[in-house]
Each structure stands twice: as C-alpha cells, then as structure tokens.
Amino acid sequence: MMCCHAKTPELNKDAVIHPLDPLTAKEVQSMKQVVDEAGDAGPSCRYSYVRVWKAGDDVPRENGALVLDKASNVACEMVVHIPAHQVIHTRQLNPVTDG
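^ that's the sequence the OP posted. Answer follows.
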C-alpha cells in the first residue's frame, strides 16, 4: 500500500512490461536500422506501418513493417528480429493479389 507521500515508481520508457504493449520508439528505430543495413530499404523508402509481428510470452519481439520504395513504387512486407539484428522475412507485394 502506498501513502499519499510515497514517490510514484518510475518505469523505464523503453521497458516492455507485457508482450502486447505497443512498440517502443527504441524498437522501431532498431527495426529501421536492421532493414536499412540489410539493404532492403533506401532513402526513397517510406514505412507505411510498423507493428508487433507476433505477440507471445517471450520478449523481445519480432517486428513487422510494410516498406514502400517511392522511387520504384515497390512495396515489401518485412519481419525483423531485433536481438538477432536481422531481417527474417521479406516479401515483395503484388498489388493485384495483395491489394
């Protein structure tokens, strides 16, 4: 029990408390760095969305991104495993079949 004079505990802003928590800014920055270093995105690419790829009990999580290369008009779906510092899935999207 806390009294009215107790200091509120401070949480690390990058801490993941629950696997379904939103991605932290650090996770998003790390995911972008991995995709860039893998050569899968360049200066003309834009990230349409970034999300937790698979929710589970194990943290750290895999992150998914939809990356659009504005120069070539090509969209790719990617999954990044941050601790391994690698892209573990990439797939070029087909606008006819993928929408």
